[in-house]
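Treating backbone geometry as a discrete language has practical consequences that deserve illustration. No coordinates are needed to read the tokens, only the vocabulary itself. For completeness, the protein is quoted in full, as a sequence line and a line of structure tokens:
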Amino acid sequence: MTTSPTGLYQFIRPERLRRRRAVFYSSVLLLTSVATWFMADLLWRDDKIRGLEWLLLVLFVILFAQVAVGFVTAMLGFYVINRGGDRQRITRVIDWGNEDIPLASTAIVMPVFNEDVSRVFEGLRVIYRSLEATGKMAHFDFFILSDSNKPNQWIQEEIAWVELCKQVNGFGRIFYRKRRQQINKKAGNVADFLRRWGKRYRYMVVLDADSIMTGDAIVKLVGMMEKTPQAGLIQTAPRLVYGESLYARMQQFANRLYSPIFLAGLNYWQQQDGNYWGHNAIIRVQPFMEHCALPDLPGSEPFGGRILSHDFVEAALMRKAGWQVWLAHDIEGTYEEGPPTLIDSAKRDRRWCQGNMQHSWLITARGFRPANRFHLLMGVMAYVSCPLWLLFMVVSTIHVFNQLRAAGMSAAAYEKYIWVFGHAFEIPEALFLFLFTMLLLFLPKIVSLFTTLQRAEDAGRFGGRGPLVLSTLLEIFFSALLAPVHMLFNSRFVFSTLLGQGVSWVTQRRGVEDGTDWREAILTHGGHTFFGLVWGVSSFILLPAFFWWLSPVLAGLVLAIPVSIMLSKGSLGAHARKLGIFLTPEETRPPHELGRLTQNLAECYKHMRPIESLRNDYGLLQAVLDPYINAVHVSMLRQRRPSEESRDWFALLRHRLLSEGPARLTTKETLALLLDAESMIWLHEELWKQPSSALAEWWRLAMRQYNVLTLTPTTALYR
């Protein structure tokens, strides 16, 4: 990495980058070619490959190539880490110990949609305090961009914003905005912010509702952008934290242990042609506004219409315009939360599946860089590979029985055969292919484990060498058990998308709560279990040897219900933590910011005292009844002059609300009242003026309970 006469940092030379990518793609091609040659040789019977065998070979090549991509990426990352790190990385543009970090105006934006208000605003408090501790706060503003469509959420967000600003002296630096129309989900929310305020800032740091970033990490990101004028976007690699269930703890352990070599390998070959994951990233505002407006795809949903997964496309558009996109994989202090259960993970994958399938339109889009086309392709294949794997196994099963019937062989004669992906081969011929495939699947995990075990300090951050080895073995076991379940989940999602079934955007569940109950598990996994039983019984009756080779896949399907329930339990996750299983460095040596957030949330949830009988409409109660909250809410509404017809409608709604109670109004009608400043002022005045006999019983109860309750805001007096 050198500096050119123009002062711009020159990263890797083009010819050297071409060599790196040649190594990457050639390695993938070589591994796939070797495996394909062995597979074709094994399928070659009677001097020809028949129709069904051609289908098997094509499916094998596609699936093995995807495995090879992951393996080569991991091995390149291991090579980079083993030699002390890659000199060609974005974090090297600044000498962190001996150079002042240049800064510029930066907006920190957090889009939210019906999220846990306490978690959102306590997270913001921690980020704000951490950034304040750097002494660089003058360069930063915070924006909470709400698309919440529940009245309770909306009012609680406003209260939390006011209280947070009061407690950290954040007025004029922390802003809250509630959109009237939720158009194009998160991408539309950010685009609306940019249209209104984007020109005031050089950069924006995009967060999710569950994101945490330290002040040091944010300052470093801005500094890297300032020192690299060619950079349009820098993506960090957030660590998974706050996993409570056994499933979430397993996922965050795997993320923390395995990701370093994969991320280092990814940066090795992609360099400035990186990707964007939608959050925990910094973006140069002007080129993003000029070049990253999302086009509408031809046709209607799910394949057409508005792009659901916007991040990959925005990265490709940024590169198309000539701006660099980097992965700062070695930046610490960037975190997010994962889904707590297998079912919640599948719900998230359902949304991602439709978004990634839409990218099939864009792989051949004019002007995109080859690396970005590859990112889009791999995003599509992450889901399409599952129905291809299912098809491969079903076709393999049919082919096996056809071979058995055609050859007239007994089940005992097949005992000398090995079964690779459900296909029978003689052991001397097939053993190499089987071991070769297993090597590519499991070697990256084993390499990650041994790399960490080499230093006692690194192993200690995972609880020690013994717990680390045990945790890795358990993660491998459960991952193998869950793989066929994910296969059927994603196969169904792909088929649903192909059949034109769109998906609605819902709030992601963050906390573990009570886990998955038996009813939910049976409804969700019942089909998996039935499919596994039918497949297993048929295989055992026709060919017991085939059944035993197929048993690892069948076990995951048949046991899907109890395994899903077990992994969802927070009590088992807590017990595993006590035993030192699935520990991560963020738990053994928690950063100050995560420790502070944990403490604040514990205090916050302990002091929250909702009125149980009024819980469903508690936000509306506060906005109408409480003079302070009513004033705050009205002050944040845009004053509009409704038509005479609208005024009559609002007047009718207001009288119905007071005389009949909020249960008789729809959510749409309640939101309409909350959006009308005149109505909110009138409701507050009339509620206190009218005799109790003129009010609904709900309001009389609300006033009695509210008067004796000392309200504690959702974000109480925490540091």
Notes: Residues 97-349 form a domain with the Spore Coat Polysaccharide Biosynthesis Protein SpsA; Chain A fold (CATH 3.90.550.10). The first helix runs from residue 14 to 43. The chain is about 60% helix and 10% strand. The longest strand covers residues 106-112.
